Amino acid sequence: MNRRNFLRQTGAISLPLLGGLSGVQALHSSRLSQLLDGVDNDKVLVLIQLLGGNDGLNTLIPLDQLSALNTVRPNVVLPEGSLLQLNPGAAQAFHPRMQGFRQLYGEGKLSIVQSVGYPNQNRSHFRSTDIWSTASPAEVEYTTGWAGRYLESRNPGYPEGYPNPDRPDPLAITMGNAASETCQGTVTNMCQTVNNPFEITSLATGGNTPLPDNRFGEQVDFLRIAISQTNAYGASINEAAEAGTSTATYPDSNFGRQLQNVVRMVSGGLQTKVYVVQLGGFDTHAQQVSGNKTEGRHADLLGDLASGLAAFQSDLEDQGLADRVLGMTFSEFGRQVRSNGSNGTDHGDAAPLFVFGNCASSSVLGESPTIDTEGEPGLAVPMQYDFRDVYGSVLMDWFEVPEDRVRQLIYPGFRYLPVAGGCSTAVAAAADRLSGAAKGLETSVLLDWQTTDEREYRGFEIERSEDGRTFTFIAWQPTLAPAGGGAGYHFEDPDVQLGPLYYYRLRKMAFDGSSELSPIMTARLAGTAIAEWTVGLPYPNPVVDRTTIKVYAPTDDRITWSVLDLTGRRLLQDSASVVGRQDNLIEVRTGRLPAGVYLIRLEGRLVNETRQIRVR
Question: Where are the alpha helices (H) located in 94-214, listed in sequence order?
Answer without folding.
Answer: 99-106, 125-134, 146-154
